[in-house]
Design brief:
This protein has about 500 residues and is mostly helical. The chain is about 70% helix and about 0% strand. Helix 1 packs across helix 7, helix 3 packs across helix 8 and helix 13 crosses helix 14. It is globular, with a radius of gyration of 22 Å. The two termini are about 30 Å apart. The N terminus and C terminus are likely disordered.
Length: about 500
Amino acid sequence: MSAQPATTPEQQRAPGDPGSTDGLKAGLKNRHLSMIAIGGVIGAGLFVGSSAGIAKAGPAILISYALVGLMVVFVMRMLGEMSAANPTSGSFSAYADRALGRWAGFSIGWLYWFFWVVVLAVEATAGAKILEGWWPQVPQWGWALIVMVVLTATNLVSVGSYGEFEFWFAGIKVVAIAAFIVIGGLAVFGVLPHSDNEGAGLAHLTDHGGFLPNGPGAILTGVLLVVFSFMGSEIVTLAAGESADPQRAVTKATNSVIWRIAVFYLGSIFVVITLLPWDAKSIEDKGSYVAALDSIGIPHAGDIMNVIVLTAVLSCLNSGLYTASRMAFSLGQRGDAPAAFARTNGRGVPQAAILGSVVFGFLAVWFNYQWPDTVFTFLLNSSGAVALFVWLVICFSQLRMRGMILRENPEKLVVRMWLFPYLTWATIGMISFVLVYMLTDKDGREQVILSALVALLVVVFALVRDRVTAGRGPAPAGPADPAPKEPAAP
């Protein structure tokens, strides 16, 4: 395969130009980006994790989802502002590099990569469990291997094949939730023909101990349980760099994030807690969505939901591998990862970055089978709070980048954060509060402490590395890495 050196980040691509700003091919179509943006907020956690939040907070889990959703909307607005001005495969890592210093871009880029390669193992195992239940002839580890190999091959073929797979994976999720909301909504108000659920209207919001059955504090507990199901919203800003018109794609995705969260999260959870009392045993035993479908009388509800969950898992795996590889590619471009990661093959695919990411993904899967309660649990907990760290870095980067964009390219400020800088600081306060509140929860405390320790080690390494590099003077650019080490101004 012919290798192409990464070009300089300063090169700009006109809308519609099929070339690439950085060696990647603009192989994602508008329909791919639209579905990636819509499906990016619908993770498997929504389907399998919502029952725990409902059990803790009751109907008030709606407030928990609304608070986290609002936080994500603000973060995406900030990220959209920076991404529309300078679309890049490194997204927030490249912006942190520019706004806060090279140590920040290096640290958050590698932490984000670490988060996604651990997610690969989690999702591969989850998908393997479902597949083993259908075809027990193949052992669970065999299914995990098959799933990882197939999706690795998909990402290696071209970015277009990733986009096509994600289009259909995300499409199934979107259609499933939309159908659930429509059918469930009709059943709630007793107008669904042949429904086994007579429909209580809005009565279940208050008839089992009130809207706040476990007190106001349960809302915050619910926040801790649902916050990580929103991770992945930012993927569209990485993918936009491989589309024909990245600025338009980012702007559209940023402007639509409000209704996506309102419909898919709040809408579907509202249906669940109005169809059934929040303390119904079936929600805990079967899961919130299966219990709701069963109450209506939908046959084979469990099997239907397993298909949807498997689709969500495969979507997460597909996007996780894509995201990890593009972050590794961007780090390689900036000299913060092996130079091979910054090279693309003849199809515009960063092959080394993909294979490097999947090797660690396979290693994490092996840890999950060999030492699930020790090594793998450590990996999970030490990456658990990275999502919140990423959101904090986005906020602080946007505080600095707004002024830089206005000074250097004011015409590119096509997406603006509302009420700047007040809402930015308010979002920083919200995220910080969630991190501090996690320390009061046993599981959350372990995640925050271990994630913070890993982050501290990476930051210290980055600072020492920068100091050593500065002492040696600028390194000459090699033939495969001609780009200057400093990121481009947006």
